[in-house]
Task: structure prediction
Amino acid sequence: MIVSITRSGGIAGNTTTATVDTDSLDPDRAKSIKSIVSDARAASDHGTMMPDGFQYDVTVTDDEGSKSMRFHGDPCPATELFAEIRNL
Amino acid sequence: MGLHRHRSALPYVLLRQHGIVGEARLVKMGRRRRDANLMRKTIAAPICSIIPPHIFNRLSQSHDPDYQRLGLRGLQITARLRAQRSANEAIEGRAADTPGLLTRTVYTASHHESLPGRVVRSEGGKSTGNTAEDQAYDGAGIVWDFYKAVFGRDSLDNHGLRLDSTTHYGAGYDNAFWNGSQMVYGDGDGKLMHDFTAAIDVIGHEMTHGVTQNESELAYHGESGALNESLSDVFGILVKQRHLLLDAASSDWLIGVGILIPPDPLPAGAVCRGLRDMLNPGTAYRGLPFGDDPQPATYADRYTGPDDNGGVHINAGIPSKVFATYATAVGGNAWETPGHVWYRAATGAGLPSAATFAQFKAITIEAARQIDAATVPALQYAWATVGI
Result:
């Protein structure tokens, strides 16, 4: 699974993109990220856009194809995902 | 009751029929300010009450798109307020709105993400000794005083809205935001960014989002969103300038000085002056781990991609440059004539929520004609410098 997440906005207005191929991770870390992705995919609440809140654009590519999702604000399903991937 | 009465009477009729007395927390009625004024005149003692959700529910089902929008907005606000109220049941002494008086409450989120958090300081309370908490408290007072003294505005809603600030939001959180009812400040991660309460213009920026929410409600995407952001930078920098007694010529016109943490040593050619340069968009920082300042200086170079809600922070540099250029040309204190022109443009009935830069230009020129016609040429020139 390849996961790409872009965080933009916030009061500083900058954009940061982080990408990971879970096949390159140790099994536990890969499982953790896949779990977070699964939660994000299932989320019905994609957050609330608010002034100076972050915008998260997530693209997940796996055997089932590619899916993109957008989330707004913190905390949201993408908050933890961004922190996990960015710190890899 | 049917929803087919005359538009201007409908909101008042609904409130009186449902026994709402005192000054309700007014949901911004879009362009129907005359209705809001009617309500203020006919409602008596000031208490803080919330219009019952079933009223908003009825409105949300209206065939009239304006009332539909009003109803949906009311339901959103009510849900948010109810959630906050239930979360604050354990908090004692939650402040009420106080027309004419400054009412501040500072909370700590204790590095979690639940809002508003735990009360650490109420209005008149002594310093906590925590830098972020005290800066949030003092900063809110400085901004409140700015709007009161310069524009005669009574808090963010012009009706004494209490000012709630949450500090220490999240863990190493590199951001500050307005969540629709309060200011929220992160501590920064200590590597890329410092605590956001350290910059008075950042505090002014966030609080001005509250002003915009209660006035034009500029939609937070595209050009209207960039105007929303620019207004926050404009009034944020004016707060800073007035607080530091800097006139237009003496000001650095930098937003967020001291927030970004430059690498040590600073790479050759790198620049780290602030988050944004209003007079020279795109020059605030360069060559940092954070990246390069993305703001364009002209409309032709505006960002049109999907990030940042269509570039609201990026393209805000365009109207911000107009203001800084205009204020510098006029001279003196920027919060005087230029500030009044911008305040009239931002809070007048003619600014639509979906305003474009071109529409805002026309509104500012008209405001300048009304306030000080001699400055109109300088304003027209300022707009020309960004290609609008």
User: Anything to note?
Assistant: DSSP finds two helices and four strands in chain A. The first helix of chain A runs from residue 27 to 42. The mean pLDDT of chain A is 94. The interface with chain B takes residues 6, 8-16, 48-55, 57, 73-75 of chain A (CB under 8 Å).
